[in-house]
Amino acid sequence: MLRARLAEARLAILLLTRIPVGYLRDPIPATGASAWAWPLAGLIAMLPASLVYWGLHAAGFGPTVAALGLICAATLLTGAMHEDGLADMADGFGGGQTRARKLEIMRDSRIGSYGVMALILSMALHVTLIARLDNPALVVPAALGLSMASRAMLPFWLARMPAARADGLGHGAAQVPATCVYVAVALGLFGVLPLGFGVGAVIFAGVVVATALVAALALRQIGGQTGDVIGAMQKLAELSGWGVAVYLVG
Length: 250
Hints:
- With 250 residues, the protein is mostly helical.
- It is 76% helix and 0% strand.
- The chain has helices spanning 2-16, 38-58, 63-78, 81-95, 99-107, 113-133, 136-152, 154-160, 169-172, 178-192, 197-222, 227-249.
- Helix 4 (81-95) crosses helix 6, helix 4 packs across helix 12 (227-249) and helix 7 (136-152) packs antiparallel against helix 10 (178-192).
- The radius of gyration is 17 Å and the shape is globular.
- The termini are far apart.
């Protein structure tokens, strides 16, 4: 039992980060079975990124450079997979006229103007929100907690939403056991509690609303979820959480 859970956690890290954890041996867990550990993968990726923020801030580079350092480190450690999903979703939803065309654009490896603008605006907003707090005692726990919380709702929507394609990551990960959903949500909520129970609960509520809005948009646009939609969902949920954090404690 413990060996199976460890294998699922390692698969989550392999799937959501670029942190090496070695090769998995047979039997390899199903992608959906690893979903409970996605918040943990977010935590592991954000730990060194938070150290980069703390180091830059302590060295006197200021809140903006420190915020950029945190985001750049986190992006490198996750392989920019969530940013890629956001860009692809923006291109597909913005440039396609039909469901089939939207899915075709989203699968195209090239980036379009909608995707470029989505990345520029999201990065600018992300830096601005983190820099606004300008306090490592707030930013570090918020970064760690939001990295967990923004991934905590992904298993829920994978389980609830139909796959928009008959193949791809979204289809392969759609079989998420109910237990994985409950554990992931619990871990995500636990991640933001160091900010205070009330503040953490409101921030998590903001994350839930953001993911629900993305889910509703995806259902309307393409009839379900894809890997790109799930990646975009994480990124927009994280930004929403930062916005709520700044509003409450900034």
